[in-house]
Structures are given as structure tokens and as C-alpha cells.
Amino acid sequence: MLYRLCGPEKWPSLAGLACLCARRQNLGVLLVNRRIYDEAWPVFWAENTFAFESGRVLVDFLEELGDEKRARLRSIALLEPSEDGLDLEEEELSECWVLLKQCSGLRELELDSGLLDRLEFVLEMRTLAVKQVQFTERAKKMGFDSYDQGYRERKMTPWLAYRRAYTDPLAELLTASMTQELADEERLRRAFELRVRLRSLVDS
Question: Organism's domain of life (predicted)?
Fold first, then answer.
């Protein structure tokens, strides 16, 4: 599990860091005393993006949170961490959608484009309601000489670093369904079938 801490900077992705310790700076302030904790914990849950590399980890995380903290979550990402691919177990992903619906304060979802490869996931995701959805995919390896070089590159062109936005007709229709009005299931099925055909043409 990866905590992407306060502020607009959300990069690099999980795949770009061997160690995540830098992401957890300054959390000790929550332990100073009870008053500081009581004032700071709502900010921690609301202002951070919580990113996960598998459905199982996301399910375990959300199940452990109490209702109050779960309601404070604003931003969640489910991303492919490596070339091995996203752990797409149907049963645990189904649990994900149920638990995400219980996050009443959820405003932003970043989802791996690999989730679009399974029709059952597409049909379940369409019933989620959030203000902003973005599908992303792993970018080609940039070959940075160092973490510092990658950090500078992200400041100038953030989408070039590690992950990039992904879109196709299915992603656009699903995004509209999640953020505006529930899409007709048959339209999603047709968009999914079109995506499968186009990808098979590209691969052949």
C-alpha cells in the first residue's frame, strides 16, 4: 500500500520507488498528543491519495477502517505496480466495488486501464459514483539516471513519468457513467466488444 501525501504532487508511481519511506514523512506529529491527533487525523484521511497495487490490499484496508475514517477518504488509486500486471481476482475486485460505494466522501478515483479488460469489472464499476475518474496505464520506461532526474522531469511533464493517462471509447463511456449519469449496460457491452476487436487488430 502506498500513501501519496499532502499536496498536488502525486508522483512517482509505486513502480518508480524501491523504498516508500519518503512518502511517510512527518506522520509522527499525529503522536505528539491527543489534541493534535484529534485535529490532524481528518486532514490526513481527506487530503491524501491512497494507492493500492491489488484488490486484496484495497479490500483489507477498507475493511479495517471504521465508518468515520472511511467516510473521510477523498482519493483512491488502484494501479498496476509492475510488469507482472495488476492482480485481477474477480472475487476480491467485486468486494472492492462494494466497499468503495461505502466511501461516502470519495471524490477521485484513479484506476488502472487493465480493469477495462474484464467486462464483469466494467459493469460493476459503472455503478460507482464519484466526481472525477481517471484511467491510467504504465508509461514506457523513461530510463532516468536517478530519482532526482525523474523528479525534475515530473515537475515539467508529469504524465511522462511512469504513468500516463489512458482513454478509449469504453473508458470515456465508463467515466461518464461514474461521474454523471449511469450508462446503459448494453452500450457498455458494445463499447467493450469494440475495444476487444480493435486491440486484437493492433496485436495481430
Answer: Eukaryota
